Structure formats: C-alpha cells, structure tokens
C-alpha cells in the first residue's frame, strides 16, 4: 500500500504536549521506526461534537456483549499468536507482506510509537485488538486487527465505535482514525464531529473529501 504523506519528520521529544501539537498539525505516528511521523490526510473526531447516530446504535446493539479493555505497551505477556493474528488479518485485507508478525511483536514488546493495546472481549475470549497512542488529549486508533472468523456482526465498526466512546468518556479532545486515502476509507466519514486535514488546515467539508476519495 502506498501511503499519502505531505511531510515527514522524526521526533525525540515524546512529551504529551509535543505529540498533541504535532497531531494537531496533521502528523501521525507510523510503525516505520521510533519517533517517525507522517503528515497525511488525517481524520479525527472532535469529541465535543460527537454523538451516536441511529446507525451507530444499531451496530452497537449487535455487539452488546463486546467489552473494551486496555493494556499498557510494551506488553509483559506477549504471545506469538498476537503477531500471527495481526499478520493474517492484514494479509487477508490488504495483501501479503503488509504487516509482518515480527513487526507486530516489535511494536508490542519494545518502546515504540504506541503506548496502548485495546483488547476487545466477548466474555473471557479476546477476539480483537487495536494498537493505539493515547495522551491526556487524544487517542490515535491506529492498527486494528481481529479474528475474521468471529461471530460478532460488524466487529471492525463495533471496535472503532467502542474506542470513540472510550475516548469521549475519558475526556479526550479528539480521537484520530488514521487517514483518508482511498475510496474504501469513506466508511470513516459517518461520524458526527469528523474533521480532515488537507495539508494546511482542518476541514469539516466531508462532501469535498468524498469527491477526492471517489476520484482515486
């Protein structure tokens, strides 16, 4: 997958203040190496404006037994099955070699750009995960992966919605949902309070963004 970037940089200052400021300028952490950030067509939700739509509620009702827990990174209890699950997910969704099991292990077991793992459970069974960066002001919902043979309807969307609710309930200003680069990213534009970064400023003009994505 080619990745849209306007600018790039590598930081050494990992203070929440610096990270919050850079995300506000359209930069996001990536998995390339520690400190590396891309400025991209970032998507975020202003959580002061977010409320669940009727469609959001319908999705959540179908996954009412889904629970979100958080773990700090690096993980103390990493198991190889996590890397395999992530690799299998990204191979299926995007093609072979997009996200290796070794890279997943590196991100989850060493001090990298992400500091949380969101763990999604049904009762005691873990069925989904998302690699996240969280500060006092933001959540970056970055690399989700889950069991594609699970029995939960619309699990990917349910996981994202649960993360949005978590961010709002924990008094964050924004949740970042990655980037908008290709037509398949249009599903991310359904949320109230959504904004996108066009290279110089943030915009709420979603029709313009849809036109850009459909032209790809």
Task: Describe how the helices and strands are arranged.
Blueprint: E1 7-10, H1 16-24, E2 27-29, E3 36-39, E4 42-46, H2 54-62, E5 66-72, H3 80-94, H4 101-109, E6 116-122, E7 125-134, E8 138-146, H5 155-169, E9 174-179, E10 194-197, E11 202-203, H6 206-214
Parallel strand pairs: 8-9
Antiparallel strand pairs: 1-3, 2-3, 4-9, 4-10, 5-6, 6-7, 7-8, 10-11
Helix pairs in contact: 3-4
A few lines on this structure:
The chain is of the alpha+beta class.
Report what the structure shows.
It is a single chain. With 216 residues, the protein is of the alpha+beta class. The protein has a single domain (7-214), classed as Aminopeptidase (3-Layer(aba) Sandwich). Helices cover 31% and strands 28% of the residues. The protein has an 8-stranded mixed β-sheet with strand order 5-6-7-8-9-4-10-11. The longest helix is centred in the middle third of the chain and has 15 residues, at 80-94. The radius of gyration is 17 Å and the shape is globular. 32% of the residues are buried. The mean pLDDT is 94.
Give the rounded overall mean pLDDT. 94
Topology order in helix (H) and strand (E) letters: EHEEEHEHHEEEHEEEH
- β content, as a range? 25-35%
| Stretches with pLDDT under 50, minimum 5 residues | none
Strand order of the largest sheet: 5-6-7-8-9-4-10-11
Number of helices: 6
User: What's the Cα radius of gyration?
Assistant: 17 Å
What is the β-strand count?
11
CATH class category label: Alpha Beta
CATH topology type: Aminopeptidase
Indicate the CATH architecture.
Answer: 3-Layer(aba) Sandwich
Termini gap: 14 Å
The percent range for helix content is 25-40%
In CATH terms, the superfamily is Gcn5-related N-acetyltransferase (GNAT)
Question: What does the largest sheet look like?
Answer: 8 strands, mixed
What is the domain tally?
Answer: 1
Helix/strand structural class: alpha+beta
């Amino acid at each position: 997958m080619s990745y849209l970037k306007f600018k790039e940089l590598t930081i050494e200052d990992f203070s929440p203040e610096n990270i919050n400021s850079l995300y506000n300028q359209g930069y996001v952490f990536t998995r390339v190496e520690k400190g590396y950030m891309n400025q991209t067509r970032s998507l975020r939700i202003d959580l002061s404006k977010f409320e669940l739509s009727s469609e959001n509620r319908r999705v959540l009702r179908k996954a009412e037994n889904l629970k979100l827990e958080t773990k700090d990174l690096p993980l103390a209890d990493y198991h190889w099955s996590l890397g395999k699950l992530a690799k299998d997910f990204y191979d299926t969704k995007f093609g072979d070699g997009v996200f290796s099991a070794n890279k997943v292990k590196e991100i989850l077991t060493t001090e990298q750009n992400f500091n949380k793992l969101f763990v999604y459970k049904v009762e005691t069974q873990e069925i989904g995960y998302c690699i996240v960066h969280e500060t006092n002001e933001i959540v970056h919902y970055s690399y989700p992966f889950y069991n594609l043979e699970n029995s939960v309807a619309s699990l990917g969307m349910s996981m994202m919605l649960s993360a949005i609710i978590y961010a709002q309930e924990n008094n964050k200003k924004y949740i970042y949902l990655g980037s908008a680069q290709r037509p398949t990213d249009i599903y991310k534009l359904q949320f109230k309070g959504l904004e996108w970064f066009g290279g110089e400023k943030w915009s709420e003009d979603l029709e313009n963004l849809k036109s850009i994505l459909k032209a790809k």
